[in-house]
Each structure stands twice: as C-alpha cells, then as structure tokens.
Amino acid sequence: MNGSLVANETAAPSPWVGAVDDNSTLQLSSEPPDFAINPWDIMLCISGTVIACENAIVVAIIFYTPSLRTPMFVLIGSLATADLLAGMGLILNFVFQYLIPSETISLITVGFLVASFTASISSLLAITVDRYLSLYNALTYFSERTVLYIHMMLVVTWGVSLCLGLLPILGWNCLDEPSSCSIVRPLTKSNVTLLAVSFFVIFTIMLNLYFKICKIVCRHAHQIALQQHFFPQSHYVATKKGVSTLAIILGTFGASWLPFAIYCLVGEHDYPPVYTYATLLPATYNSMINPIIYAYRNQEIQRSLFVLFCGCCQTNVSYRSRSPSEV
User: Fold this and answer.
1) CATH code: domain of residue 221
2) Can you tell me whether residue 154 is helix, strand or coil?
3) Model confidence at 5, in pLDDT bands (50, 70, 90)?
4) Distances (CA, A) of 207 to 23, 60, 120, 125, 249
5) What is the count of structural domains for the chain?
C-alpha cells in the first residue's frame, strides 16, 4: 500500500471504515500501543449480535417445522438466513479488526458483509414479488409454476449476492491504490457506486410493486362492498391495516438504507469516518427489524414459537421433577 496507519493515543484501529492519506507515514513508538476501541464499532458489534440472535430463531423454526414449507416461508427463511449471516459478519469484523488485523481478512469480512446485505435486500425484493403474484394471480398462485418462480428467484438472489461479495476478494479493491478507496475500505469508489445504484433500482421496483399491491387491495375491498351493497367496517379496517402494513414495510426499508446509499454516491474516502458509521449503523437496523415485520408477526410462526418454548419449559420442568434415582 502507498499509505499506512498513524498510531496515536486517540486513534482507534479502523481498517475497513475510514480515511486514507496518501502522504501518511508509519510512526513507531517505544511506548506500548493504546488498544482503544471505537465506540461505533462496539455499536455495530452489538447490532450484529442482536441481528444474529433474532434471525437464528427464525431460521431454526422454519427449518424444523414441516408445515412451514410454503413459498412465502421459504422466502422468509432466505431473508432470515441472509440477515443471520450479516449479523455474524458484523461480529466477525469486530473480532478480526481488533484481534487479527490483516488486509486479507479485511477483504474477506467486507466481501462477506457485502454478500450478506445484498442477499438480504434481494430477499426483500423477492418477498415483494411473491406478495404481488399472490394477489395478481390468486387462482394460479398455489401451483408448481409458483414454486419454480420462487426457486429461480432464490438462485438469482444468492448467485448475484455471492458474485458481488467475491468482487473485492478477486481484485476489485483499493489496497494497491489508496486514492481510489471509497468511504468503506477496501472497496473502491466504483464498487460502492455499483452497490448504491443497485439498491436504488431494487428500491424503485419495490416501490412500484407495493403501489400496485395497494391498488389491488383497494379494488378487492371495493368489489366486496359493491357485492354487499355497503362497505362493512371490517373490510374498511382490514384494507386500512393492509395499506398501513405496506407503508411501514417500505418506510422502514427506505429509512434504514437510503442515508447510507446516498452517502455512498456523494461521500469521499477523505471524509471523517464518523459520517460512514452514522449512516451504516441505521442500515444494519433493517436486518434487526426484518424478523419482527416478516416473521414474528406471522401467526404460524408465533404458534411454532409457543410450541417450541412450551416444549422446552415442559422438558426442563419434568427433568427437575425427577428423583435422583431416576436420573
């Protein structure tokens, strides 16, 4: 590399988020280095831990519940798996960053995070497409063709995500040319721009699909009202709830990722790292909220959770109630 880190008592190691100075020189000191930890990295690690725990439960429930094998739950499982990997990536990045600092490991962890978050966002798009198809082709939705579409979307989702994650590892990075670094080292500015543009494309498609879903829901409610010659309060409440849910889903997704995506386009590598952290941290919250919106609010998953925890409690109680001679 043409540049190197400058060690001082206040600077915390930040190999993958930060500014790069081409004219910097390595300053060695006879005093032991101060092992300062960036508070932003701690918050990212905590966020990753919560994300991993939440989504690990969802993945386990879907995997061990035979009834949750419908296309919808397969896509929710894909989303939970992607968010689980993203949470693990944030934890591993923190561990490697402070315990085993290495350019090679930095490339691997950043590529892992890129692939995981890309798979998460792409899974959200796949869920949106599935919801649109379930309303637009309601009569033929439960058919083998739908299953084929779901499998194709999963293959494309994870295939593209894996390719984007491998790009930095295969050479598209700024380790040999620090001036080309983006706000997230060691990704180049062009790489980050590609990811940001891809996000805006996905967000636009989701916005269009959710708008069409709202139109279909309102049209169905209007048809029911015409058939019954009045608009029942229950249909009004259901329609309002459905539209509100769609607004919450899209609003949460946009509020989480838009600041970071915009900053990826306008930010420069010599900007203060705090700007990157301040936009990246809210983006991770989307993976924290996803299981609440898509999984834990579902009645079947709630039922499976109830059975799981009740079964564990009953097993624990029965084990404790057994006499020592029976154990």
Assistant:
1) 1.20.1070.10
2) helix
3) very low
4) 45, 31, 17, 10, 10
5) 1
What is the pTM assigned to this prediction?
0.81
Domain that residue 142 falls in:
39-303
> How far is CA 269 from each of CA 39, 120, 174, 265, rounded to the nearest angstrom?
20, 26, 11, 11
Q: Is residue 230 part of a domain?
A: yes
Task: Dump pLDDT digits (tens) for 25-70.
Answer: 333 333 444 558 889 999 999 999 999 999 999 999 988 888 888 8
**How far apart (Å, rounded) are the C-alpha atoms in residues 59 and 128?**
20
Distance in angstroms (rounded) separating the CA atoms of residues 42 and 25: 28
Q: In which band, very low, low, confident or very high, does the pLDDT at 7 lie, cut at 50, 70 and 90?
A: very low
Give domain status of residue 34, yes or no. no
Hey, CA dihedral for 284, 267, 255, 168, is it positive or negative?
negative
> What are the distances in angstroms from CA 130 to CA 73, 86, 102, 146?
11, 23, 42, 9
When the pLDDT of each residue in the chain is averaged and rounded to a whole number, the result is: 80
pLDDT(21) > 50: no
Is residue 322 in a domain? no
Residue 41: strand, helix, or coil = helix
Cβ pair 86, 114 in contact under 8 A: no
Query: What whole-number distance in Å separates Cα of residue 181 and Cα of residue 175?
Result: 8
Residue 128 placed within a domain:
yes
pLDDT above 80: residue 304:
yes
> Taking a C-beta distance cutoff of 8 angstroms, is the pair 40, 274 a contact?
yes
Token output for 34: 């101060």
Better-scored residue on pLDDT, 276 or 229: 276
- Tell me phi and psi for residue 188, to 5 degrees: -80, 165
Helix count (H) and strand count (E) of the chain? 8, 0
